[in-house]
Amino acid sequence: MDLRLDIGKLFTPTQLGALKLKNRVAMAPLTRSRADQNGVPAEFATEYYANRAGAGLVITEATQVSFEGMGYPRTPGMHTETQMDAWAPIVERVHSHGAKFVVQLWHVGRIAADLNRGQSADVVAPSAVRAPGQMYTDAKGMIEHDMPRALETEEIARIAGEFAAAARNAMEIGFDGIELHSANGYLLHQFLSTNVNRRDDEYGGSIENRVRMPLEVLDAIVAEIGSDRVGIRVSPGHTFNGIEEADMEALYAHYLPELEKRQLAYLHVMRPFANDCDRDVAQMARQHYSGKIIVCGGYDAESGAEAIENGIADVVAFGKLFVSNPDLVERFRAGGPYNEPDQSTFYTPGREGYTTYPTLAG
Ligand SMILES: Cc1cc2nc3c(=O)[nH]c(=O)nc-3n(C[C@H](O)[C@H](O)[C@H](O)COP(=O)(O)O)c2cc1C
């Protein structure tokens, strides 16, 4: 049997809102920490992204909307002119390969050490609840996460405005759209949670209140750049970064239809990777959302094509496979082989483990 026939669906074009994709393979958002401490992408990030533009859709690494939204070392931003000037040639090169390119916008909330920021800012969260565990800093190695302060009610509009401004910046330098990061335990997910969100204003307590902040951020972005260029990423059941969703089923049964009302370009559903989860969250998302869906998390060419075939997904995103295989789409077509990703260089500065993985051509 020719396996390539089974995965043919991956190579067919599709459309997500305003974005026409040449195929249904997406590069997942991948933090690589190659920017500088002021969030300015490295010059060689151009080569890294361009080499992966065989994907129909390339999603950037998580990119902050302010220094307050930065938590890890050397993550890029979309809120200063110097950052935008560094992103512009990356966008141009990705587009020259016919890929669509969206920027994943985040605010890390409490998953932060102020030491990692080029400019100091408060560490903020829905409530003053410190994240468990430690995080890496260039200055002092592993340290505890900083203790966050609870956001004032009035500050939520400020943060929504920062997301909208970053989305506008991205469009100005030619990005095709943005993906709002509502997953993996960062600020929006902290609001959705039952353990980090202990607020007693209209942003805490009931499910309707806990989804309010993420929806206000989303609505501010949509008002700025239009709904058909906006996607959103969720990770139901993912306990990463100390998140609890005690009412996970009910939460997403409310949140996902609210997202659907916005007529977004896509919903991106990430299956938990840091913990086991009994629930098939891709299946769950499909039950509550009838728009376009990208799935991600543990897929290979065959299982990805199957998810499309079964109507669970329209597009499949690949993370670790794209770290180590710049020409992943060609390798899918050829039936492999695949380079193994080297975890030790996931977040280290410099080209090693970033632009050094070979293509099939050598
Ligand atoms: C090195 C690395 C960095 C990541 N950075 C991000 C990120 O910036 N934003 C995000 O939403 N997910 C991030 N993820 C999660 C991936 O997007 C993806 O969901 C995960 O790797 C599972 O997909 P896979 O099995 O195809 O690798 C990261 C994963 C890895 C391995």
Could you explain the architecture of this structure?
The structure is a single chain. Strand 12, helix 8 and strand 13 form a beta-alpha-beta unit. The strands form 4 sheets. An 8-stranded parallel beta barrel has the order 3-4-6-11-12-13-14-15, surrounded by 5 helices. A two-stranded antiparallel sheet has the order 1-2. It has a two-stranded parallel sheet with strand order 7-10. The protein has helices at residues 3-6, 45-51, 81-95, 155-172, 187-192, 207-210, 212-225, 248-261, 281-288, 301-309, 320-324, 328-334, and strands at 14-16, 19-21, 25-27, 57-59, 63-64, 100-106, 124-125, 134-137, 141-144, 149-150, 177-182, 230-234, 266-270, 293-296, 315-318. It is built from 12 helices and 15 strands. The protein has one domain (3-345): TIM Barrel (Alpha-Beta Barrel), CATH 3.20.20.70. It has 362 residues and is an alpha/beta fold. The protein is globular and about 55 Å long. Helix 2 (45-51) packs parallel to helix 3 (81-95). 31% of the residues lie in helices and 16% in strands. Bound molecules: flavin mononucleotide. Flavin mononucleotide (FMN) is lined by residues 28-31, 61-62, 104, 181, 183-184, 233, 270, 273, 296-299, 318-321, 346. Residues 28-31, 61-62, 104, 181, 183-184, 233, 270, 273, 296-299, 318-321, 346 line the site of flavin mononucleotide.
